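USER:
Working in pairs, take the chain set out below, taking as long as you need, and write a paragraph about the fold.
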Amino acid sequence: MTTTENKTMDICEIKSYLPHRYPLLLVDRVISYEEGKTITAIKNVTVNEEFFNGHFPHKPVMPGVLMIEAMAQTAALLSFKTMGIKPDENSVVYFVGIDGARFKRPVGPGDQLKMDVEILRNARGIWKYKAVGSVDGQVAVEAELMCTIRSASDASQPAAGQ
């Protein structure tokens, strides 16, 4: 008999994998993941977000760069789970590239950004993902993200393959 385990992560577990903290921790909960394949996570967007003070006071909109960052944090969680490791205090995940970024609808206070990330490949230390962020079933943002995981002491060195 086979059972399908619904793998989730709460905020405490997320914080054990990501070094980000307020105001830049942008993943509130992982709904499900399958190592080596996909992850689905959420970011609850509230009017109390620091960035809404200036973006924009008259019409609050989550900055696109932060939606991309939220998807990258989700991707990093999937990579660490896939590798079966927890990063140490010297581990850093860096962007290597962002391709095909498209913003389809604004995200604002009260929205729940659902992030679906799929690993496309992992070669020579470069992870490539397809990432889609949606609100109420409507695509808000999509992109292909490329990241590498490095030791902070190696941070000044070029990424593998460059």
Observations:
- Helices lie at 11-17, 64-83.
- The two ends are 47 Å apart (CA to CA).
- The CA atoms of residues 38 and 118 lie 4 Å apart.
- The beta strands are 29-34, 38-44, 91-103, 112-123, 126-135, 138-151.
